[in-house]
Every structure is written in structure tokens, then in C-alpha cells.
């Protein structure tokens, strides 16, 4: 467990990095404390064309289908010198409401891949639930495999390859189950029960917030 | 003992006179119905030289001096056909010599037969199995093999004489197997075993000839001939014999022409063979007889393919099995992929202890700098 800012070791339940003073409070003071709505693919630098973006969305959709608990997001943009990619990744997972097909996916199962084409750096940040599986060693090996694609400027291809590598790592640790068939909603009060969102407002009584981490485990099928 | 019968002389004279008188009366009545031909002053006129049988007009009765021009002062030489009484059949004409002479002598075409329709390939039938032993047991010195007695006697004897004469004078012996028009040799029949194996012990040619269908004739030659002569020349020889046989419509004559032509071509062919001291046609491990076919001229490798057909069959079978296995593996992988598509993976949910104040993440991960140094 390392500090995302200075990579110094951080103990469990430590609220502030003793080496650099990094914490959630510190980053909120820099980037803000509000929740932000984010697409799964955020391309600030314009390095991804429409075709690559659509293809990457397909890949991420398939990833989410196979791992109903997880989701993966991608960020591509230049950062200021005072901010590192792990810092941004830390803030995105803790304050980002990612537009996934299932809003109920928890951010502690999130995976965010960040690429700074100007610094020529790439980073992968994961939530708490995936830390035992996607360790720093595993993620470093995955980034090393996509190094060539990144150097060639094929950012979309690098993200797809990283997603595939993460897929393999998670499958090795997960338990395969048959996909649960669709169930008819027991009660339909409005269109939102059928997955349809009205254009008048958000269609929800509460603002869009990521679900808080829950200790309740999902029921496992025998 | 009885006394011999004696006739009264006077009674005998009386009976004879009565008989003669009766005959004279009958003759007189015939004369009235059928008058005798009259002798003419003009000599008989010669027929046109291009009419059928005109060259044999000298053989007609009454022509005492053949080939002489008919001068006007020549005495009349007998009755003429055009003076025949009208009571005779009107079909008999002065030119219709074919009724009296054999057609081959006239040198003219006999009444033309209807062109034979080739037997369809599907209608061909194998030579009955009970004839096969007769082919194997055929005498070695009988070069005409006709177990079904398809040929007429005269043509058979002529052909046998021809083949016997050919055998005495030629190095390549010729055997002819006669089949019926709609027959073919069974596939499993080995021509090398015919005539008690004589075809494999000497340099020879076997012609399998369906009567009335020369275009289906097959020729088998010894290996030494195939090695000495080119495939094109052998094919030309076979085609030439068939063409010559098709000059006539008579089945027996077709076979006769075919045999004569083939004998001639074999005479020409034997000059290409190596000397008499060369190895015989029987070669260990190989087929003693080989058929002349168009496939041999198409590609020299086809004969090699035929010789190694079992090996090729095995290789093709192995490739086919490999292809089937590959397709089955693809189907299995596709099935597994479909099954994976319908599957999801559930991850364990560990106990979460927040760090650095982050509710969902402590920023754990990895960083890579891919800048070229």
C-alpha cells in the first residue's frame, strides 16, 4: 500500500500520507469535493477518433457483462505539473459518477486507466475491492505489455489490451457462474422501472451518487 | 415264281404315239402364251461404264467376245434382257446384277444399314462371369478369342488365319478378344491372365473389341512397347485403327479392317523395340500389360499417380481426417465461446479498510512512463 502521490508506504487506516501529506481532503481542495458525472471514456486531449472510441466502448461493455460487479473507465488528457496520474485516478474513483449501463455498480470495484500523452505516462488505479487481485505487480506487468502501443501513439489499442489483460487476471480470481436471465419487474410505476429515463430532469428523486461501499456480499448461486 | 411281265409291241407303239401327241399339244399352247424370243439383227448394246455391274457385262450369257466394241455388222449374240416378255417380274431390270452376283464382287455398296447408335455408358454390361474362365483357359496359339461365338464362321476363319500369319511373322503377337456390342470387360478381370498367361510372357498386344462398336475398342500393350514408343504414337495407332474400321458399317467387316490395320501398325511399331535379346515383357513387380489411354498422353505424371494410388489414397485420407478434426475443434471452441458468453465471473468482496480518506479507493495502482529515453 503506497501513497499515490509519493509512492511511500501507507499503513492501513492511515488518513494522511506522512511523507507528502496527500489525502482525500488535500486533493479535494485542489480538484473540488463535488461529484462529477463522467463517461466511461473521457478524451480531453482528442487523441481518440470516433471509431476508436466506439470500439473501446464495445470492449468495455463486454468487460462489464462478464464482470457484473466491475467497470472500467478511461481518461486521456494532459495534466498540470502539480498533479500526477495516480492523484487524478484517486480523485476520479472517489468522486466520479461513471455512466455505466448499471448505475448500481460500486466504485470500489472500479478500474480507471489514465494516459497523459504529453508526459508520456500511463497509470491504472483500482478500487479497494480489486486491490487484492490487481496488485501493483500485476498492474505494472500489464502496463509494460502495452508500452509499445503507447509509444506508437495507439492509445485506444493500448487501452483495449490493458482491458483484456485485466479481464484475464480477474477471471483467474473470480468464480464463473451462468448469467442470470432477465426477470420481469414485479411492479411498474413509471418508465424508469423499465430502464427508461425521462428527459425532464434526471428522472430520479435523488442526485446521481455512487453507491457507498457495502459489506454485504452478493448471494452466490450454488 | 411268276412269269415276267411282257408288253405287246403294238400296244407300246400306240401308247407312245398318244403320249407324243399330248406333249405336242401342250407345247403348242405354251407357245401361244410365251412366245420364244426373236433373234435380232442388231448386236446387244453395252451398258454405260459407270452403272453398277457394268464392268461385268462380259459375263452375261450371249457375249462371246468380251471387251470388243459393238460394230454394227456383228451378228446378233443372243437374247437381250430388255426383250424379256412383259409377263416376267417388272422388278428385274438390265442393271440389277446384284441379284445374281455377290456384292463384294460388284464392289458396290450393299443396301446401307441404319447407322448404329452408340450404346450409352450406363447401358454397358459386364461380360458374364461364366465366360471369364474361358478367357483364362484360351489356348495360347489361338489368337482370336471369341467365347460367345459372335463372329460368323467365315469371318472367324479369315481372322484366325490373319492373326496366325501375323504371329508367325511379327515380334508383337496380336490377340483379339471379341465382345458383344453392349458388353465391356469387368473391372476386376486381369487381361494378363488370358490365354493361360501368354500375354504376360511375350511381347504382345491385346485388343478388346466390342463387335459393331469399334470406337470402344481397347488396346493393351506390353510394358516394353510402352517404354519403347511414345504415348502419342500409341494413341495415334489406336485411333487410326478405329478410323479404318469405321469405313464400313458391317460389324464383321469393321473387325476385319480393324485387325488388318492393327497388324500393319504393329509391324511398323516393332521396329522401335529393342533387339530380340532384350528383356521380355514380363517385369517383376509391374503390370505386364498396360492400356493405351488418353490420360497417359495428358500428363506423364498421371501414370505415376496411378502406380502410387494406394499411397495417395492414404495421404488424402489422413488429410481428410485432419480436416475433420480441425473443423470439430473449431466447433468445440465456438461452443465453448458461446458458453463463455453466457457466463459471468463473480469476484470475492474483501473487507474494505479505507485509507487516506478515500471512500472507494486509496489510489492503489501502477504508473508507467513510456517516454523513449
Written description of the protein model:
The complex is a heterodimer of chains A (222) and B (373). Chain A has 222 residues and is an alpha/beta fold. Chain A folds into two domains: 1-33, no CATH class; 36-173, Diaminopimelate Epimerase, Chain A, domain 1 (Roll), CATH 3.10.310.50. Chain A has helices at 24-31, 50-66, 85-95, 136-145, 147-151, 155-173, and strands at residues 36-38, 41-43, 71-76, 96-98, 110-116, 121-126, 175-178. Chain A has a four-stranded mixed beta sheet with strand order 2-3-5-6, with helices on both faces. In chain A, strand 5 and strand 6 (121-126) form a beta hairpin. In chain A, helix 2 (50-66) runs parallel beside helix 6. The two termini of chain A are 34 Å apart. By secondary structure, chain B is an alpha/beta fold. Chain B has eleven helices and nine strands. Chain B has helices spanning 9-33, 103-106, 132-136, 153-169, 194-201, 223-228, 231-245, 251-269, 294-298, 300-307, 309-341, and strands spanning 125-126, 144-145, 173-179, 183-184, 204-210, 218-222, 289-291, 343-346, 365-369. Chain B has a five-stranded mixed beta sheet. Chain B has a two-stranded parallel sheet with strand order 1-4. In chain B, helix 4 runs parallel beside helix 8 (251-269) and helix 7 packs antiparallel against helix 8. Chains A and B meet through helix 3, strand 6, helix 4, helix 5 and helix 6 of A and strand 8 and strand 9 of B.
Amino acid at each position: 500500500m503506497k501513497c499515490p502521490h509519493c509512492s511511500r508506504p501507507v499503513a492501513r487506516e492511515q488518513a494522511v500520507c506522512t511523507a507528502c501529506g496527500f489525502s482525500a481532503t488535500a486533493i479535494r481542495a485542489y480538484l473540488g469535493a463535488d461529484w462529477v458525472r463522467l463517461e466511461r471514456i473521457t478524451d480531453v486531449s482528442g487523441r481518440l477518433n470516433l471509431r476508436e472510441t466506439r470500439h473501446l466502448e464495445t470492449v468495455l461493455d463486454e468487460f462489464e457483462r462478464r464482470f457484473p460487479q466491475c467497470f472500467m473507465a478511461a481518461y486521456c488528457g494532459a495534466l498540470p505539473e502539480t498533479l500526477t496520474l495516480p492523484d487524478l485516478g484517486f480523485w476520479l474513483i472517489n468522486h466520479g459518477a461513471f455512466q455505466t449501463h448499471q448505475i448500481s455498480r460500486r466504485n470500489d470495484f472500479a478500474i480507471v486507466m489514465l494516459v497523459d500523452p504529453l508526459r508520456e505516462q500511463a497509470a491504472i488505479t483500482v478500487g479497494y475491492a480489486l486491490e487484492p487481485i490487481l496488485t501493483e505487480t500485476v498492474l505494472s506487468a500489464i502496463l509494460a505489455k502495452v508500452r509499445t502501443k503507447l509509444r506508437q501513439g495507439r492509445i485506444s489499442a493500448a487501452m483495449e489490451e490493458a482491458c483484456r489483460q485485466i479481464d484475464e487476471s480477474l477471471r483467474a480470481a473470480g468464480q464463473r457462474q451462468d448469467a442470470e436471465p432477465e426477470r420481469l419487474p414485479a411492479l411498474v410505476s413509471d418508465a424508469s422501472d423499465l430502464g427508461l429515463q425521462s428527459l425532464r430532469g434526471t428522472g430520479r428523486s435523488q442526485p446521481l451518487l455512487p453507491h457507498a461501499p457495502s459489506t454485504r456480499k452478493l448471494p452466490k448461486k450454488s | 415264281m411268276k412269269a415276267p411281265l411282257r408288253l405287246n409291241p403294238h400296244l407300246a407303239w400306240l401308247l407312245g404315239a398318244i403320249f407324243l401327241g399330248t406333249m405336242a399339244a401342250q407345247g403348242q399352247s405354251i407357245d401361244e402364251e410365251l412366245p420364244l424370243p426373236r433373234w435380232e439383227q442388231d448386236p446387244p448394246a453395252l451398258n454405260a461404264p459407270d452403272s453398277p455391274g457394268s464392268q461385268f457385262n462380259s459375263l452375261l450369257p450371249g457375249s462371246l467376245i468380251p471387251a470388243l466394241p459393238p460394230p454394227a455388222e456383228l451378228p446378233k449374240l443372243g437374247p437381250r434382257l430388255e426383250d424379256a416378255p412383259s409377263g416376267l417380274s417388272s422388278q428385274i431390270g438390265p442393271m440389277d446384277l446384284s441379284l445374281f452376283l455377290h456384292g463384294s464382287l460388284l464392289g458396290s455398296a450393299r443396301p446401307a444399314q441404319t447407322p448404329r447408335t452408340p450404346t450409352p455408358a450406363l447401358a454397358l454390361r459386364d461380360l458374364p462371369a461364366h465366360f471369364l474362365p474361358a478367357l483364362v483357359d484360351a489356348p495360347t496359339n489361338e489368337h482370336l478369342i471369341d467365347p460367345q461365338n459372335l463372329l460368323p464362321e467365315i469371318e472367324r476363319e479369315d481372322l484366325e488365319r490373319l492373326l496366325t500369319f501375323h504371329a508367325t511373322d511379327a515380334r508383337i503377337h496380336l490377340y483379339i478378344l471379341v465382345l458383344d456390342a453392349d458388353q465391356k470387360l469387368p473391372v476386376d478381370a486381369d487381361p494378363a491372365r488370358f490365354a493361360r498367361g501368354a500375354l504376360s510372357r511375350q511381347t504382345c498386344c491385346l485388343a478388346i473389341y466390342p463387335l459393331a462398336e469399334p470406337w470402344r475398342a481397347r488396346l493393351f500393350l506390353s510394358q516394353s512397347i510402352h517404354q519403347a514408343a511414345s504415348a502419342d504414337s500409341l494413341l495415334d495407332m489406336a485411333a487410326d485403327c478405329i478410323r479404318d474400321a469405321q469405313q464400313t458399317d458391317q460389324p464383321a467387316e469393321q473387325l476385319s479392317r480393324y485387325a488388318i490395320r492393327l497388324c500393319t501398325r504393329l509391324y511398323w511399331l516393332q521396329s522401335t523395340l529393342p533387339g530380340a535379346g532384350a528383356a521380355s515383357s514380363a517385369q517383376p513387380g509391374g503390370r505386364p500389360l498396360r492400356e493405351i489411354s488418353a490420360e497417359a498422353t495428358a500428363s506423364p505424371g498421371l501414370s505415376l499417380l496411378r502406380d502410387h494410388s494406394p499411397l495417395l489414397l492414404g495421404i488424402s485420407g489422413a488429410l481428410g481426417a485432419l480436416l475433420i478434426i480441425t473443423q470439430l475443434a473449431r466447433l468445440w471452441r465456438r461452443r465453448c465461446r458461446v458458453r463463455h458468453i453466457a457466463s459471468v465471473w463473480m469476484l470475492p468482496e474483501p473487507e474494505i479498510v479505507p485509507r487516506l480518506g478515500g471512500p472507494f479507493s486509496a489510489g492503489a495502482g501502477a504508473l508507467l512512463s513510456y517516454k523513449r529515453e
